[in-house]
Amino acid sequence: MDRKNADAMFEDFLAGRLDRRSFVTRLLALGASATTTAALLEACSGGTTETPKPADGGGGDGDEHAKAKGKGKHKADGDGENVLPETKELSIYNWSDYIAEDVVPEFEKETGIKVTYNTYESNEEMMAKLQVGAGGYDLVVPTGYIVTVLAAQDLLFPLRKKKLTNWANLHPMFLNPSFDPDNKYSVPWLWGTTGIAYRADKVKAPPDSWAVFHDTQYKNKMTQMDDQRDVIGSWLKFRGKSLNSTDKAELDQAKADALQSKALLKAYVSAPVKGQLVSGDVWIAQLWNGDTMQAKAENEQIAYALPKEGAGLWTDSLVIPKSAPNIRNALAFMDFCMRPEIATKIADFTGYGSPNAKATPETPIAYPTDEEMKRLEIQKDLGEALQIWDQIWTEIKAG
Amino acid sequence: MAESVVEFVNVNKTFGDFRAVRGISFHIEKGEFFSILGPSGCGKTTTLRLIAGFEHPDEDGGQVRLHGDVVNKKRPYERQLAMVFQSYALFPHLTVEKNIAFGLEMRGTPKAEIPGRVREAMDMVRLDATNFARRLPAQLSGGQRQRVALARALVLRPSILLLDEPLGALDLKLRKEMQLELKTLNRELGTTFIYVTHDQEEALTMSDRIAVMSEARIAQLGTPAQIYECPRTPFVAKFIGESNFFEGKATGRSGDCWRVEGSGGAFDVPAENGVTQGADVIVAVRPEWLDVCAPDAVPAGENAIAGTVRDVIYLGETLHVLVDLPGERTVTVAVRNEGQLARPLAWKKGDRAAVAWKPEDCQVLELGDA
Amino acid sequence: MSGGPSVRQRVLGWFHERPTATAWALLAPGGLFLLVFFVAPLVIMFGYSFMERGLYGGVEAGFTLEHYAAFFQPLYLTILLRTVVMAVSTTLICLALGYPVAYTIARAGRFKNALLFLVILPFWTSFLVRTFAMIFLMRDSGLINSLLVKAGLVEEGITMLYTPFAVMAGLVYGFLPFMILPIYSSLEKLDLTLLEAAEILGAPPRARFFRVVLPLSMPGVVAGSLLVFIPALGSFLSSDLLGGAKQILVGNLIQNQFTSARNWPFGSAASFVMMVLVVIAVGIYLRVRDADEAREA
Description:
The complex is a heterotrimer. By secondary structure, chain A is of the alpha/beta class.
């Protein structure tokens, strides 16, 4: 069977451009067995499925299967859930600079769905919006532990895996993450690390430790991110502690280290520091690896280093808010992005790591080696301890 | 001659293309009540502002002298003058007391002296201190504000006080009251008052001398009697009081009169006044110098021109009889009202009548200046 | 038209006879809007400030004063103090810069409208965009430094961005029109004859300004000061973008509580403490000013 045609038809059917009867007819015409056809139908539709009649000489035992399958088909589909309404729109809320430019237009062209695309700068910004019920977003892209938090507040829609046909393309490393067991809610989008971006032509040696932020020779040429988890986390790692620590003593030590570095820092700034790295106003910046690659595209001298004490590893995932009005389309988009060529584009453009095993980005960011994994740590939600962290952060900022 | 406190020597003032004051010269004597009178745009306010110092004469535009010193370039706060503005210009954020004290403070009067001087000024303008001292200008009536403006100026005991149409906003009765008060103050204090107005009645009432201005020049300078009874130009004759004009050419002389013949009629004019044979002559005759009589009953020796009564206007004290004369002109005759109820006037609309006057009861005017 | 007056005429007539009802009717739409979008959220926030913090943000039921108590610790009070100082400084600088500008415009005759237009023009761009523009101007490789270095006035660039100076510059630039316009409005109404009266009473230029112009422009000065002080107090963008987020102001603190710190009740409490302080401060200021005027009399 011509896989490509089938894929295309499949998409069409999912998008509602092809009705069931035509779909079945064409599939059979392509030579799919009745069994396959029935299975496909079951996978992507909700509600009653007609028993596909073999056109002529389909598979012999196909008849029985079809009949058998047909029996249970006159009620809700196998998942036992309701039909997802067909709509023509999709609202995506993502980090800025976090998708390849032509992905959305391609999706729109293929499916005829009109996409609204908005961006945010921090998890908290996005979460606050979901919490107050604002936005009408169909897809958001939280970092790791935020998925846990959103799930705990019952703000997420459990995925219909059956609709995500490209699931198998994902690298096993990103399946069943600790923040979302069994990927109940999330499809990995991109992964990255938070290390140190630097100008190779301005610094004496590539920084290999967070201690570089205590180095007075780079006074006023360095920045750390304006994010309490990243800054305090970096100083916890510096002292060999976990970046999820809630121990007061460890946090006080981190505060002291942060204050020591603050005196030398130019600013606390996150993504916008790229421009200053490119222009040379900033030589050393705590930054995500992907954004560093983006800056590198504008200035070859920019490079990236992972400190030896360790850094944060994170995965951003696509999730669907429970209040999403266009769930069917959201799932379609998720599936679309799991196609190897799309995943490749996204990784190429953003510079981050693709969780898609079949993606072939130009400058692949290798999956962390075992040795590196020992140094990297994934952020977890702090729960009640967030108050202590915030106080520490306020003290750092006020100091 | 009394000393001259203000002197203008051939002063010119131009604003861009507009000549506001053209070569005017005059002097003002100490203690005088001197009015500058004229219609809007004649240059009277500019003249006052030149005295005050808000305007300076043109580069070669003559001299302004105060007490004998040339002050062309001095700013107002360098000249020791006081001024009452048309809009009073009271400081809205200061009380009456503080308003009046302002000038004293600016001129360095010792603090202890100020309250007394303020009281004194308020008494002078008859403003009750206990009641008004702490009020704000917004809480005063127009007349009260006017008095405060006056007090603010007089408290400085100035030798010269400038007044720019200060009574314009007051009602008639109050205006008349204030006119008398100002005149009294002028006499009692001995301060020179320089008063700008467009109201000729006001000027006649209060002034020792009047400068009548028209189109940036002084048309005539003199006492009220001189201005009123002997106007020199048609403008002055028209502007002050009312005048009837008769014109013609001097045709012949008989005795001490010239015969003047015009389109309306012929009349005699006393022979001074530089009248020459064939010259154009224009005379002004005030309504009260005219009388109405029957065309054939003209008193001997009087000029008379016959016409038709057009209207009789009742003005209380007088009656104005309007008579149409040949040559399409109307003449006003003022007749004393002897009581229309008891002894009504003999004339009414439509009657044939003549207007008559004695030849010497006219004023020969200078030509070439309307 | 047949019959009696139309419905419309009757309704209008009804209103015509009842001025109070008319007043209420005219106020109703605006009032309703304010009630729903201003008063109601404030009341809700006030309620939040007494509730318990939700684990993932939001609030949970419960009554506690701990958030207010937490605010009155040295750490947060210092932040408040620093914010007030910065807001006062901004106001004073705006006054010093804005008054002469307003004065000049008021005296500018036929150029008045053009100059006013120039003052208002920045408002056509959003505050955020203008703040970013300042970043481009002030950073080490920015426009100002490039010009200075090219002109040979300095060796390498001066550090302007990410300093308190940059924050103040951003705030002053952003709020200056709010100071200029009310003062201009006050000055424009000034009767110039008053200045002439003062002059002929013996007042030299300095006295004329301090004794007449300034007192009479006070309403504009007060209005302008409040219009600058209050927003400056709550600002957080400038200190983040221009100050390099190295200083934390009350505005940043509150923003944090609603985002990364997920402590909405504390954020609400802080907001209300600030609001009350502003109201008190402004009340004192106005009271003092009125007393001053009364004392003058």
